[in-house]
Amino acid sequence: MAYKFKSLILLLVLSITKLATGFYIPGLSPTTYEDGDTVPLFVNKIFSDKTQLPFAYSDLPFVCPVEKGGNRWLNLGEVLRGDRIELSKFKIKALENKTCSTLCAVDLTAGKAMEAKHLVSKDYKVEWIIDNLPGATAYRTADGNHKQYEVGFNLGEKDEKKKDAVKAYLNNHFALKILYEKKNNDPNGILIVGFEVEPRSISGLKGACPDYPDNPENPKLEIDANTSQVTYSYSVLWQETKDVTWGNRWDLYLTNSDPQIHWYSIINSLIIALFLSAMVAIIMLRTLNRDIALYNEKDLKIEDQDDTTGWKLVHGDIFRPPKWGGFLAPLLGSGVQVLFMGIFTMILSLLGVLNPSYRGGFVSFTLFLFAFSSAFAGYYSSRMYKVFKGTAWKKNAIVTSILFPGFLFGVIFMLNFFIWSQHSSSAIPFGTFFVLISIWSFISMPLSLIGAYFGYKKAVIEHPVRTNQIPRQIPEQSWYLQPGVR
């Protein structure tokens, strides 16, 4: 019997070990390529700092179509941030350079051409992906000693010399540079550590590659209502590097170009916060010392002792249940919920679980942590509700789980109609709304009820002072001191 019990324990330990070794987060495990292996290039979206409305690259009517059935599975965070990742028709082989290859030729109508011109004029950038790395624009820092990456590359260029007639040039040739390092334990294997895209606008291709794609003197492809066709081409260059390894390949995307400004802002904010906090503390201490000295005077007259002032004036009313206490307790619980969500998110970020290589992971984990933190919301809301001598703790728990999340959901739902009308990829699909409602209904609300149950079972929080039975009369305030005006 003891032998069987030990065998079961050993089997359980081995099972847990197997699960631990099988744990995988996308982007945290390297993909090894060998000479001639196919390297897929995924297209994602276009985005702009001017409009804040991303669009799916595959939905653009003036670009090359994507592979049919090449949609990549997206997690919840990727959908919410507007990602639409699909497999492109680029033919890229590991360690195989290409001087120039024609991708496709797209026939345009006047409407499609003007849409391209509009997006170029709004400074839209394109995001492509190879080996979970976004295609980047490489540039040098001010001192010229360091290279950095900016996610995405320009959809086109614009000439604003004439304000009444802005010219737009569409980028139709893409010079792809893929940086790699050789794998230590595999002489034939390589790891991709960088993906740079240098777009160019070249006119007069007519379904073929340009003779000299690297020539900066090539005439540019102006896009307007008269543009009838666009030919897309690309070149591929594989370059070995020893400056970047797979473990730090994201550093080029994240490194600040001027860290001194960053630290200056932090120090400046801390000094201002400490200065203001010190001023408030000094004022509070002086007020308290003055009131305490007044209360401790032994030569006060009896009639003066009844005329209390300062802090002593409100000590008998400070813990009186507010008029809208039924909303204060749920709002307190929601605040605690957001606090715990933030704490858990920071812990996961420090542990490296939430990192830029895990695309959409931050949004997904934050959403689920918010749902699971509903237990804390129900617990603390119920305890505050019990302080107000409430008895309907189930009703309070339901209000806690609905009030703040329902408000956010309603605002997002309304804004989604406007985003959907612009055909933006950041518009949340109705299927995703159903998933969010399911998380809210089957995770958030039950956990809020469970937390409220344990919170209501706790002893009521005792007040340090006794509350007066008769509320103190507050003089009628002027109109500019009314809560609605302030």
From TrEMBL:
Keywords: Golgi apparatus, Membrane, Signal, Transmembrane, Transmembrane helix. InterPro entries: EMP70. It is a multi-pass membrane protein. The chain crosses the membrane at residues 263-285, 327-354, 360-381, 402-421, 433-456. It is found in: Golgi apparatus; Membrane. Residues 1-22 form the signal peptide. GO terms for biological process: protein localization to membrane. Belongs to the nonaspanin (TM9SF) (TC 9.A.2) family. This is Transmembrane 9 superfamily member.
